[in-house]
Amino acid sequence: MFVERAKLHEIADLVTHLLASQGYTCLDAEFEAHTRTLRLFIDHQNGIDIDACASVSTQLVESTDLDVLLPFEYNLEISSPGIERPLRTLQHFLDAKNEGCEVSVNLTEKFTNRRKGKGKIISIGPDQIISMTTTEGPWSFPWNMVLKATKVADWSKIQAPPM
What we know:
SH3 type barrels
């Protein structure tokens, strides 16, 4: 069972719409075919904890809207985005650019002889072309070719909690 990326974007947008009144957004959706698991990465201005995940899961299980988009049995998993947050929308890419953080990008197919890259976003053009600086040199690609993208954590700047 395969779920196309466009369908996953549609699911993430639907979930954001369904949960908007409570302040949640769905940053991304993934589908694992071998376990038939739909994984939704949610966020909230107050953060995400296990209780938020459980609450959202209950709401979505009771809704029939997802069943229209996925008309087969599947497991639903709700998760926080974690520190290496997914980038799905142009706004997510713009936010990452403005934060100056490193991102990792995988495209649906090779573009300018590359399919993957890691670096910092330097611009997003009105034509939705994203330009990055990477260790392999400059790289530009159309936003609509992005298969998966995430922020890359700078683990040297992250402090471990006190013991």
